[in-house]
Every structure is written in structure tokens, then in C-alpha cells.
Specification:
mainly beta; seven-stranded antiparallel sheet; five-stranded antiparallel sheet; 3 helices
Length: 360
């Protein structure tokens, strides 16, 4: 981009913060014909409210179960880690990859050239998967980030270091030291949720989905607010990210030219209640998921059809733009991965992963 049900379980605490008030999130748009199709997990493909889930650490917890219509990519003793499907909206096929909230964690990385000031960023958040730390947990998915810094589409913070100042009104994904996520509108009450202390934040434009519906902004004829496009056309390849009612994180993208509203409808079709646009234009959407946690560079066969890049580029050598890395929690419910957290120093503070609790 040149300007990019859950099962009610004892001991799972779902903190619901913030309903979007006014602005782009206050109006719904008409629905569209949506069909869901699935792809076998053994088939490689070339190619409201903010919500936080606090993961329990108890053997009484039930496993993360498969769901009809979704194909399991990876699993552990806790259950499903990552699953995926294709969804068709208005005749356009979108790839959806879902990170289960109780079995995975997420980290954000900057690129080698964007955002700027990458020389100040620790290796754990640099332009390549940090195998000495992240490899211990095991990589289960990777996917592209958002717009370039020069697009002025919002701010970013990593390891406590502000790379670009955060902007009020912008949709934001926040990550804390244990890799939990929360998504909401920066500057609104109760976001981040009470007790949620981010170590990384990434913004990109105003909300695309709120309350389980596309926002008025998503349906606006002023499509230019959703990014500069190649050829100055409304429909281009687009990617997005959202949180569903169970707190899972869902990435959705297509290489077929679509408008922002179609991307929003695709997010809603896979259960997203709160969503944002990520990067756009053909060169930038990239996603990959593995069939088992990777502790060193390896295959990521669940991909975005017709993507211009193999997602393994994030594993070795690095990438120019920001991206997200999803990791597996331990198979035991009596321990989890965590990192030190940050203090208000204004300086980057490395976040190496460490096990907390006792693993069986």
C-alpha cells in the first residue's frame, strides 16, 4: 500500500470494552449474498466492541475445538491453534485465517525500511521472525501489516517505543506482554481495556467493521479514504483484520480487486464483530499458516491464492514492511508464554519470551 461462539467455558474471562459511538461505526449498510466454502487442510494453496480474552491456566479447561466449516491448520494438546476457510462475497473469494484466542499469541514486527527508525527496534521485533525467542514457542502463522508510515493512516508502538504517534479515532490493535490482543478505537473510553497494558500497538484508518456490521465509512462513495490505489481505482486487492465474538483474531484477504465494503462484508461473513483494514494493492497482501508449530524456518502452506509473495520471506532474510507473527501456546494449560512488559521510559525494551507456570 502506497498511502495498507464461542463456547462458554468456566475460567475464561472475556473483557468487553467499548462500543463505538457515533462516526463511522454508527450506521449499518445493506447486506449482500454471502456463501461459505471450505478448502481441505491438506491442500496447499499457492498462492461494537473491543474484546480481550484472558487465557486460563487450568487443567479443568476444555480444549479449543474444531468448528464446522473451518479446516484445521494446526493443533496442540490444547486443541485448535489456527484454522482457515474460503468465503465468497459478491462472487469474490476471500482467504480467512483464524487465530484461536485461547491457544495462540501474537507479536508485531517492523520492516527493514518501514516504519522508519527501525535501527532503534530490538531484534525480537525486527524485520525477520526472531527464532531464538519466537521459535521456542513455535510459529503457526504470519501475515502482512498495514500502510506505510508516509500514508499518515495512524501510529505505531513496539516494545514500548513509539515509532509514529498514535491518533485518536483510529482503529487499533493492541498486544500485551503475554501476546493477548484487543481491538478498538484509540481515544475512546475503556480502550485499551482496563488492566490491559500494551507493549505494541498498530493503527490503520477508521473502523471498517463495528458491532458486527460494516461501518458507514466502509460503504462511503469516498473510497479514497481507504488508501491510495494503483491506477486510482476503487477496487484493488485488500486485506483486513478483526476480532470475533469469541475473541479470536481473523485475517481476511483477496487478490481480486474489491472495494472497502466488500472487504468489510467478508470480515462479517466469518464472524468478525470489530475490524480494520490492513494493507492494500497487489504487492502487499501476504499470509501463511503452518500445519504444525515451526521452531525454525519451514513451510507455510496455507496461503492467499495468487499472492505475489511466499510468506516464508518473513522467516529468513526479513521483509521491508511490518508484519504479524502468531505463535503457539504450550500444550499444557498450567503454563503460558510471556515477556517482561514495558516501563514508561520512551526507549525500546526487548520482549524475549519466557515460560510462566509449570508445564506438564
Amino acid at each position: 500500500m502506497t498511502l495498507g461462539r464461542g463456547i462458554v467455558v468456566a475460567l475464561v474471562s472475556v473483557v468487553v470494552a467499548l462500543s463505538w459511538r457515533g462516526g463511522a461505526g454508527s450506521s449499518a449498510v445493506p447486506g449482500s449474498t454471502t456463501t461459505i466454502t471450505s478448502v481441505p487442510s491438506t491442500t496447499p494453496v499457492s498462492t461494537s466492541t473491543s474484546r480481550t480474552v484472558t487465557r486460563p491456566t487450568t487443567t479443568a479447561t476444555r480444549t479449543s475445538r474444531p468448528q464446522a466449516g473451518w479446516q484445521v491448520a494446526s493443533r496442540s494438546a490444547r486443541g485448535v491453534l489456527v484454522d482457515f476457510r474460503m468465503v465468497s462475497v459478491d462472487g469474490v473469494a476471500f482467504r480467512a485465517v483464524r487465530l484461536r484466542a485461547r491457544t495462540t499469541l501474537l507479536r508485531w514486527h517492523v520492516g527493514s525500511t518501514d516504519p522508519t527508525a527501525t535501527s532503534l527496534v530490538p531484534a525480537d521485533a525486527g524485520p525477520v521472525v526472531d527464532w531464538p525467542s519466537e521459535g521456542r514457542a513455535g510459529v503457526v502463522a504470519v501475515f502482512n501489516g498495514a500502510f506505510k508510515q508516509a500514508a499518515h493512516a495512524g501510529g505505531s508502538v513496539v516494545d514500548g517505543l513509539t515509532l509514529v504517534p498514535l491518533e485518536r479515532g483510529m482503529m487499533t490493535i493492541a498486544l500485551n506482554a503475554v501476546g493477548h490482543w484487543a481491538m478498538g478505537v484509540w481515544g475512546n473510553p475503556n480502550f485499551p481495556p482496563r488492566g490491559f497494558r500494551p507493549i505494541a500497538l498498530r493503527q490503520n484508518l477508521v473502523p471498517l467493521v463495528m458491532g458486527g456490521r460494516p461501518t458507514a465509512a466502509a460503504a462511503s462513495p469516498q473510497w479514497q479514504q481507504w488508501g491510495s490505489t494503483i491506477g486510482n481505482v476503487a477496487a484493488v486487492a485488500r486485506s483486513g483484520l478483526g476480532v470475533d465474538a469469541a475473541g479470536n483474531l481473523v485475517y481476511v484477504a483477496t487478490m481480486t480487486p474489491v472495494r472497502p465494503l466488500q472487504l468489510a462484508r467478508a470480515l462479517v461473513a466469518v464472524g468478525v464483530t470489530t475490524g480494520m483494514e490492513l494493507d492494500i494493492n497487489p504487492f502487499w497482501p501476504i499470509v501463511g499458516a503452518s500445519f504444525a508449530p515451526l521452531h525454525s524456518a519451514g513451510p507455510l502452506p496455507v496461503q492467499l491464492p495468487r499472492s505475489e509473495h511466499d510468506p516464508t520471506l518473513y522467516e529468513v532474510g526479513g521483509w521491508t514492511r511490518d508484519f504479524f507473527v502468531a505463535l503457539a501456546e504450550p500444550g499444557s494449560w498450567t503454563c503460558h508464554w510471556s515477556s517482561p512488559g514495558v516501563r514508561a521510559t520512551g526507549r525500546a525494551q526487548p520482549q524475549p519470551l519466557r515460560l510462566v507456570g509449570r508445564c506438564h
